[in-house]
Amino acid sequence: MAEPITVEDPGDPRLSDYTDLTDVALRRRREPAEGLFIAEGEKVIRRALAAGYEIRSMLLSPKWLDVMGDVVAELPAPVYAVTPRVAEQVTGYHVHRGALASMARRPEPEPGSLLAGARRVAVFEDLVDHANVGAAFRNAAALGVDAVLLTPRCADPLYRRAVKVSMGAVLQVPWTRFGSWPDGLDVLGEHGFLTAALCLADDSVGLDELAARRPERLALLFGTEGEGLTAGALARADVRVRIPMAAGVDSLNVAAASAVAFYATR
């Protein structure tokens, strides 16, 4: 059982996992290097633990000690009790949900190991917005996508905002990164996947037409915000697909597009 430890000094080194959470550039470098990520809020913390992630420590304001009491009672890791003011001084923002946990990352598996038992996967190329990544993962979880594969430059799904926006879905959907891109697409072909690139190309087919084909194994490719898929990715795709638009709108936000494509091909 973890006995809460009251910490009054925001400079206490025991709280170092939680410092400067609003410094995106710093946290993007630091968290993967140190093998940690931050889960924020009761639901996300519980989902991380349910998914089997190892907890390093927990940071709670007083009102959350009772709410998280069952979790605290079972933890082998330290639990730090701090005032809202101390929490804000440490993290750099007002922690509205009052509960943070530092979790240990897992090694990223080889893409082939995720594809072996999958029938429908999503590939995200160079998404830079953590909110879009989180929303896309939530869509994938809700609409039955078996795995998500990311390009080397894609934003971190375990960054705090991505985890928060996904409501913990990034902790449920199997995912990994390609070691190289677009060469990594070859592994999809080796595992029998039809690769469908969502784009606005003149030779693209409608999403309904793709869904009607009912491919046995399907990989849906989505490009970065604004520019879409790169020429290299488009050249290697088996088919180019578009979502029909009306009212002069040319395209959807990538997270919204993923929800439509996942639903249509479910």
From TrEMBL:
Output the Gene3D superfamilies linked to this UniProt entry. Answer: 3.30.1330.30, 3.40.1280.10
Q: Which GO terms describe its biological process?
A: methylation
CDD domains assigned to the protein according to its UniProt record, in alphabetical order = SpoU-like_rRNA-MTase
Query: In the record, what terms sit under GO molecular function?
Result: methyltransferase activity
Instruction: Give the Pfam families listed for this entry.
Output: MRM3-like_sub_bind, SpoU_methylase
Q: Which InterPro entries match?
A: Alpha/beta_knot_MTases (IPR029028), MRM3-like_sub_bind (IPR053888), Ribosomal_eL30-like_sf (IPR029064), rRNA_Methyltransferase (IPR051259), SpoU_MeTrfase (IPR001537), SpoU_subst-bd (IPR013123), tRNA_m1G_MTases_N (IPR029026)
* Alphabetical UniProt keywords: Methyltransferase, Transferase
**Residue limits of the RNA 2-O ribose methyltransferase substrate binding domain?**
38-109
Q: Tell me its family.
A: Belongs to the class IV-like SAM-binding methyltransferase superfamily. RNA methyltransferase TrmH family.
Q: Could you tell me what this protein is called?
A: RNA methyltransferase
